[in-house]
Amino acid sequence: MSAPFALEAQNLTAGYGGRAVLQDVSLTLGAGEIVTLVGHNGAGKSTLLRVLFGLHRPESGQMRVFGQSLADHTPAALGAAGLALVPEGRGVFPDLTVDEIFGLALWAAAVAKPERDERIDEVLELLPRIRAFRTRRAGTLSGGQQQMVSIARALLTRPRALLLDEPSIGLAPKLFQDLLAPIAALRESRGLAILLVEQNVREAFAISDRVLVMKSGAIIEEGPPQAFADHARLMELF
Questions:
Q1: Is the pTM here over 0.85, yes or no?
Q2: What pLDDT does residue 21 have?
Q3: Which of 186, 206, 221, 227 is paired with 137 by a 20 to 30 Å CA distance?
Q4: Which domains does the chain have, with CATH numbers?
Q5: What's the pLDDT score for residue 55?
Q6: Burial 138-170 (b: 16+ CB within 10 A, else e)
């Protein structure tokens, strides 16, 4: 029997104030699969991730996480089921130190105190640059440092599936590569599934198994990254 999908969404429809943003969206994310979602600004990509993580309630549709239909679709319940989100814009608390942000994330995930140091050591092995600014307030960090903290905070929960929303925004290409590499390596070591919303298609496609193209609230095409290697054709789809 094959393993269940990490994520399976069927016919999701959602919007804001009566305005439709997602229109009958269906997708799958296999266990251990890396999928990149691309599309024009306003296509509905961030809304889709918010719906998948329980931050926005869909008007219709169904979702399964690792084969389970959850009665409770709150972020806490989805996090307990193995899902984590790195939101666009990082979302760190500027007045808290990095260590305080980590402590808050571990408390929110109900991680037992004796295990918390081990979790922190794990993410610092993956993102060792954080060691140099653990005691600084997040608001004093550069954009790249804040993005590291946001990703590390998500990884503290040891997710089995990770949603990443535009992690390259404001980052130099080399720093984005340095962030992507250890996350992609978790697919090999832990079977982590990743749904990546990203405009830096060259770097994203290099680690992806599959690409989904979104336009005006609908997924219009999908295939392996090499099917979208022609940048001009990809832009036409947008």
A1: yes
A2: 93
A3: 186
A4: 7-88+159-237 (3.40.50.300)
A5: 93
A6: beebeebbbbbbbbbbbbbbbbbbbbbbbbbee
